[in-house]
Design brief:
Helix content of chain B: 55-70%
CATH superfamily of chain B: Acyl-CoA dehydrogenase/oxidase, N-terminal domain
Number of strands of chain A: 9
Number of strands of chain B: 0
Distance between the termini of chain A: 37 Å
Shape of chain B: globular
CATH class of chain B: Mainly Alpha
Helix content of chain A: 40-55%
Radius of gyration of chain B: 14 Å
Order of helices and strands of chain A: HHHHHHHEEEEEEEHEEHHHH
Strand content of chain B: under 5%
CATH architecture of chain B: Orthogonal Bundle
Largest sheet of chain A: 4 strands, antiparallel
Oligomer: heterodimer
Largest sheet of chain B: none
Structural class of chain A: alpha+beta
Strand content of chain A: 5-15%
Structural class of chain B: mainly alpha
Distance between the termini of chain B: 21 Å
Chain lengths: ~375, ~90
Amino acid sequence: MDFALTEEQEFFKKMVTETVDRMVVPKAREIDEKDEFPWELWREFGKLGYLGLRYPEEIGGMNADPVTAMIFYEQIARGSVGFAQSVIMNILMGTYFIYRFGTEEIKKRCLYPAMKAEKVATMCFTEDQSGSDLSATKTRAVKDGNEWVINGTKMWITNGHLAHMATVLATTDPNLGPKGLNFFLVEKGTPGFTPGQILDKLGCRGTVTGELVLDNVRIPEENLLGAEINKGVEYLGEILDEVRVMTGAMALGIAQAAYDEGLEYARKRVAFGKPIGSYQLIRAKFADMATEMEASRLMVYYGAWRIKEKLSSRKEAAMAKMIATETCVKVVDEVTRIWGANGFAREYNPQRHFRDARFLLYGGGTQEIIKDFLGRMIIGKS
Amino acid sequence: MDFRLSDDQQFFKEQVFQTLRRLAAPEAESIDNNDIFRARLFEELGHLGYYGIRYPAETGGKGAYCVTFTILAEELAKNTRRKPERYYH
C-alpha cells in the first residue's frame, strides 16, 4: 500500500499548481463576471501542452495516466471552474471518440488542432428531455447511401457555440433504446448545423453553454465514431468512470479554493476581540470540512488509480463522484457562513464558489441517478 | 500510488478472519449477554502472536506497523460480533 504520488506526479502537481496560481486564479473573477470565454488563456494552455494531456507523446500529447490527469482536473477547477469545463471538454469527452475511432484524415483535421487549442471540441449528449437518461435520446441518424443524415436538438452543450467539432450522440432507431445509440462527428460549417440559444447560468460562467440544432445535417459515412454500429453505449463505457472521477476531482478543486478562502478569513476576521477561528463553532466547521475533503480526495484518487490499473472501477468512480460533489457543496456553503454577510457580497470569491459548485450535482450524471445506480449495484437488481 | 494490500497483508487478513470466525464468533453472543472477560480466548489470541504485532521481530513481535495492525483492529471488531461476515467487496 502506497498513497504517495510518484516523483513525476509530484513534479507535475507542482507545475500545474503554479501555472493555475499564476495564470488562472487572477483571471477567475473576471471570467465569472464577464461570462466570456477567455481565448487568451485558452491559447496559453494550448501552448503549454495541457490540452493533449491524456494522449500519447507520439501524437504530441502528454501521455498522462488517470491519476496524473486527476491532479490537473483538480487544480484547474481550483482556479476557475468555467475555464476548467471548457479545457476538460477538449481533453476528454470532446476528443476521445475522435482519437479512438477517427480516420487519420479526421484526426489531422480535428484531434491534433484540438490538442493544441487551435480548435474547440465538444460532445453533445443532453437534449431538452434527456440527459442522464441517454436511452431517451431523440436525435436521429438515418443512413442515406454513403452518408448519415442527422436531425435533432442538443441542449446544455459545453463549448457549444464555439466548437469546431462536435461528437453527437444519436439513435439509429428509438425503439432500440440504449442499443441504438452511436456517436457521430459533426464539424462546424456543415449545412444544417446551427447554434441556438445560449444559456445564462448561475455558475461555471465563462464557458459557453447552449443549444445546437441539427437540421438534415449530412455527414460522410466515416464520421460514425465507432468500429461497429449501435455500440455507442459500450464505447461510452470506456470513459464513463474517468468522467465521473474527473467530476469528483473538479469538486475537490472548487472545495479547496473555497476552503482556503475560509481559512484565511477565519484567521484574520476579528469578532468580540478574537479571530473568529478561535471559536469552537468555527473550528468545528474546519474539522468537518478538512476531514470530508480528505475522504473525498482519497476516493477520487483511489478511483483514478483503479482506472489506471485497469481494475473494475464502476462502483468506485460513482462513489468518488458522489462523495466529492456532496462535500464540495457542503464546503462552499460553510465558507459563505464563515464569511458572514461578506460571503453574500459579489465583491468577494465565496459566492462564486457557492454558485459554481451547484453544477457538479448534475454534470456527469445527476447525484440521484448515481445514487440509484450505486444502490442497485450493491443490493442487486429486483 | 498503490492502494493494494501486499501479499503478506492479504494473507494475514484472511488468517485473522478465519481464526476469529473459529474462536471468537461462536462466543460473541454469550460475551455480550453475560458481560464476562474470556481469559482463554484472550490467551489464544496471544499464542497467535497478535499482541506483539506492532513490535520488532527481534523482541518476539511481527514488526507489522501500521497497515497490518489496522487490519487486525478491523477484523477483531468485525468478527467478534454476532455474525461474522465479509465486507461486501
